Hints:
Elements: H1 4-14, H2 16-26, H3 29-155, H4 157-162, E1 171-177, E2 188-197, E3 200-210, H5 212-229, E4 233-244, H6 245-253, E5 257-264
Parallel strand pairs: 3-4, 4-5
Antiparallel strand pairs: 1-2, 2-3
Helix pairs in contact: 1-2, 2-3, 5-6
Amino acid sequence: MISLKxxxxxxxxxxxxxxxxxxxxxxxxxxxxxxxEHDRKxxxxxxELKEHRKILNKHMEILKEHDRKxNxxxxELREHRxxxxxxxxKxNxxxxELKEHRxxxxxxxIKFIEIMSEIRALREDFLKLSMKVxxxxxxxxxxxxxxxxxxxLEIFKEVLERKGIExxxxxxxxxxxxxxxxxxxxxxxxxxxxxxxxxxxYVIEVKSRAEVDHVEPLVEKARVVxxxxxxxxxxxxxVAINVDREAYERALELGxxxxxxxxxx
Length: 265
């Protein structure tokens, strides 16, 4: 049999209105109502906290994704940095090679300048030697005119042979225009070397040093040879140890082929 006390406790626990009635009689009704309101708000706060926790969890997931991407970016940056370091290393190697090439080029420039200086010195020596040869041959010419021409022809023998001229077959042509019918000047003497070969005539003027005054008369000499021999002059050659620049250029203008050791400015 349930006692009155047990019955009252059961009602207080299970019957809300009974509980509030008893509390009102005892003066605790307001406290219970407040506790009830606090419980309700506490549950609402719990619900909000759960919602906030969901949001926080989403944010944590987003942050994790950001962390993952950030770590990927860091790895890419490290890879780029490594490649840049490799590029810097290769670039520095290229710079070193360029410096070495520049050093070698500077050495080559120095050697080139030295070689050019040697060439100038050799050219000066050649000019001096040419002048000595010219003086010597000039002296020979004053003593042995014919021997001078033979000597010059022998000096340029190989060049002349390539042109079809055999120095040993060159003959002296000397003509005196007694009545002036050929040159227009009575008693004028035309003196020049010629080579007659295969019915072709070549006129050859030999000088130790050829000047412009030696060039222009060659054209007239060739005409005289043609008139006297009755044959066309195939080619006119000017053979000289040294030839003045002006004489060389004038000879080219007149169609005269020049064979010389040196063109003197």
